[in-house]
Specification:
about 60 residues, mainly beta, three-stranded antiparallel β-sheet, elongated, Cold-inducible protein YdjO, YdjO
Length: about 60
Amino acid sequence: MAYFNNQKEPVKNVETNVWSCVSDDCSGWMRENYSFEKEPACPICQSEMEKEVRIVPEMK
């Protein structure tokens, strides 16, 4: 499909399982399939993380 004025094709958003940091001071999160650990620690603050679902851009 052709887009004019150098506009990119819109990115599709999908519901994705993610790990989200439980700390109120941190907004860290990562896609579930990007972790090798069963229950990862936050890569930013090392706090615990919990599973949740977010709507994020689709990765191809």
